[in-house]
Amino acid sequence: WRCGVSKRGDMEAGYISEHGRIHPDIRELCDAFYVEERHVEKLNELMKERTETWDEDLKKLREVMEKARSPCGMLVTKMKEIEDGTFVAINRDKRMKYLVEKFKLDKTAETSISDILARCSKEKQEEYYYDLERHFECSGKPSATAMMIMKKMANGEPLGPPGRPGKGSYLERLQNEKEGKDKPRGGGGGDDRRGGGDRDTRGGGGGDRRDRERSRGRDDRRGGDDRDRRGY
Q1: CA dist 109 → 20, 30, 132, 162 (Å)
Q2: Does the pLDDT value for residue 229 go beyond 80?
Q3: How far apart are CA 76 and CA 192, in angstroms?
Q4: Fewest CB atoms less than 10 Å from the CB: which of 22, 105, 159, 209?
């Protein structure tokens, strides 16, 4: 049987294959972590109902089991989530995508938060999505902040108000951009003033020359008058 088969009839007919009663993908995953056979069989049964997300689910199970101190214990926990309908391999909620893109959350933060949100009620999810954005806006390291507040989320506690905007935070960057736009452009004005001063200086020099020329003109006229009088 190949994963991704969507028709239940085809799935039931093909689940028991030449590989045996346990699907080879399930067997490969469980053998990698020495999972007890009873858990292998249970996972095999649970995954019959998850053909649409087969690859994503097994990839997520492998990731969390690799990080767990007890891989088998982690598998048992995740199988309980599958039974309860709270197991989510990939969070497709648009609100989560918005947070990841806006604050450049790393994969660990995204996955950890998604796991917790999947177990929350709709009302609690709404509260946490709103509060997470407020906290991330004030943090210079949103992914690290996510890991710090996860314990509160796991316990269903309110996150409380965020602190003051930290260095490099989203809000600080917005404030710096706003201040940059509000500042007057001083370079052009200064050049104009200097240009005006230069024009005044140049104009003053021209005035001095004109004054000297007028003075010489008056001297020439007086000299002509004196010569006229002597001629009489």
Answers
A1: 38, 26, 12, 18
A2: no
A3: 76
A4: 209
